[in-house]
TrEMBL record:
Native organism: Phanerochaete sordida
Superkingdom, natural source: Eukaryota
Comp. bias intervals (Polar residues): 436-455
Region (Disordered): 283-308, 397-457, 469-491
Protein name, per record: Transmembrane protein
Entry keywords, A to Z: Membrane, Transmembrane, Transmembrane helix
Transmembrane segments: 324-345
Length: 491
């Protein structure tokens, strides 16, 4: 039995947002990026870590997955409900910060999870969804998984219809390594890959203003998706499926279902995940051969007929015994010389035995590390529980400074197409850290003390009254409350 985690970002069409994924947060969901903020114009490049916000009561997200555990990450200052496999699921009252829901011990089959936000209407309450992580399992022992990438120019891919090469976009698939991609605006154009030996497959491509719907056929089982968005996102997970039989041949095909020439569909690559054999090699991956069809885009000069293997293990080299034994012996010599130097230094020390009050050492911190749910499946970092304590008003006059309000959320275009989220390439390991959000207002209040009159000529009764006021001053200072975690929506 071998297990691994897959991370699906909130920008993937695999996550279905309702009533929409892009628009005013008061009526649905809106994508937000740490360096770009909210979208201001169609096709704006998305920069930074992403999260989807909503302040609409009843807004929901839905995800179907195959695995034995599920974890939903995000932040919220409102209540919400979760259903797992169409049954109401218990949400613990206390969860690590950043974790909205988790469920472990599921049967290794297909499951569905839905989270519904319940913020109070016309309030500053919001819910943000960041990513989903689910645990995959295969019923065999392996040294790990190899990631085999079929770039869009690989001649193993079979194209039909009209596809064109696109290049020169410095953020596709990302700004660190821009690469060519292919695009079609002809309805029913398709691209397919036939392979064997894999246990999971992903289809990756950009999402941009003007993209529309598509179908995915995996072994003749068809599903429909929507990659429309207001953002320009360089690389997303357009489709992901695990639980494949590595002993069988599989065919995955992507079909453009936008029937107007102004609707587009783009492809970066197909990625197959295959188990390593006991000798460190991967099972045969591609069973398709031959040249691409006449509808294939022209391959760039760097094209190759072989897929790119990532993280494959090379176990066929002979061991160089001398290269191993030599450094070991040298290390032992250095260690012995260091020990001799320490002994010589200790003999030359003048030990002070006349200390009157020996100082006790600090107590040893031998407490076990705090265990967090999900730790047993290898989650990345342990979320921190943040506890906001009440703000106690000081007994002196003054006012707390009020921070600048958060940047206003731009208005969405008047027409918002029905969309289904964005995504980032699935991670076969730990979920990335949650983005920090600096534009979070805090509740401020003023406090004052009762004015004290001047004392010039008073009788005894007035003097007693003034002394009583000094002893028991009256104040109207507020006690304060925990700051909210989200900016108020300007909509």
């Amino acid at each position: 039995m071998y297990s691994w985690n897959t991370t699906i970002d909130d920008t993937s069409p695999i996550v279905l947002f309702s009533p929409y994924s892009e628009g005013p947060v008061q009526n649905g969901w809106a994508g937000w990026f740490s360096d770009s903020g909210f979208v201001t114009t169609g096709g704006e490049q998305a920069v930074g870590s992403s999260i989807h916000y909503t302040s609409f009561p009843g807004a929901s997200l839905y995800l179907q997955f195959e695995g034995t555990a599920i974890y939903l990450y995000g932040t919220t200052n409102c209540t919400y409900t979760v259903t797992l496999d169409s049954q109401s699921a218990h949400v613990p009252l206390s969860l690590p910060f950043g974790l909205l829901f988790y469920q472990e011990g599921l049967t290794p089959t297909t499951h569905s999870v839905q989270l519904t936000a319940q913020p109070q209407a016309s309030s500053t309450q919001m819910l943000g969804f960041d990513q989903a992580v689910f645990t995959n399992t295969i019923d065999q022992d392996t040294n790990g998984l190899a990631t085999i990438v079929y770039e869009n120019w690989n001649d193993t891919l079979q194209y039909t219809g009209n596809w064109t090469n696109q290049s020169g976009v410095d953020w596709i698939p990302n700004t660190q390594a821009p690469a060519p991609y292919v695009e079609t605006s002809q309805g029913l154009s398709s691209v397919s890959l036939t392979f064997a030996g894999g246990v999971a497959v992903a289809v990756n491509g950009p999402r941009n203003w003007g993209h529309w719907t598509y179908n995915i056929s995996l072994d003749d089982e068809v599903t429909s998706w929507n990659c429309s968005t207001l953002w320009g996102i360089g690389d997303t997970v357009l489709f992901y499926q695990n639980g494949l039989d590595p002993t069988k041949q599989h065919t995955v095909k992507m079909i453009d279902t936008g029937m107007q020439d102004y609707y587009k569909l783009s492809l970066n690559d197909f990625t197959v995940y295959a188990p390593n054999n006991s000798n460190g090699t991967t099972a045969p991956i591609s069973s398709a051969s031959g040249s691409p069809s006449s509808a294939s885009p022209t391959a760039p000069s760097a094209s190759s007929g072989s897929p790119t293997a990532v993280a494959a293990v090379d176990a066929g080299k002979k061991t160089n015994v001398g290269a191993i034994v030599g450094p070991v012996i040298a290390g032992m010599v250095v260690l012995i010389l260091a020990l001799l130097a320490v002994l010589w230094w200790r003999r030359r020390r003048v030990v002070q035995w006349d200390i009157e009050e020996p100082v006790a050492p600090f107590p040893k911190n031998d407490r076990a590390e705090i265990w967090v749910k999900g730790q047993e499946v290898g989650l990345p970092h342990q979320p921190v529980v943040r506890v906001y304590e009440p703000i106690v008003a000081p007994a002196v006059s003054g006012k707390r400074s009020v921070p600048a309000p958060p940047p206003s959320e731009p208005s969405a275009p008047s027409t918002v197409s029905e969309s289904i989220p964005e995504g980032s390439r699935p991670s076969l390991g730990q979920p990335r850290p949650l983005p920090s959000h600096s534009q979070q207002p805090s509740i401020s209040g003023s406090q004052s003390t009762a004015p004290q009159g001047s004392v010039q000529a008073v009788d005894v009764n007035q003097l007693v009254e003034l002394i009583a006021q000094r002893i028991d001053p009256r104040t109207t200072a507020p006690q304060g409350e925990a700051p909210p975690r989200y900016p108020a929506s300007p909509y």
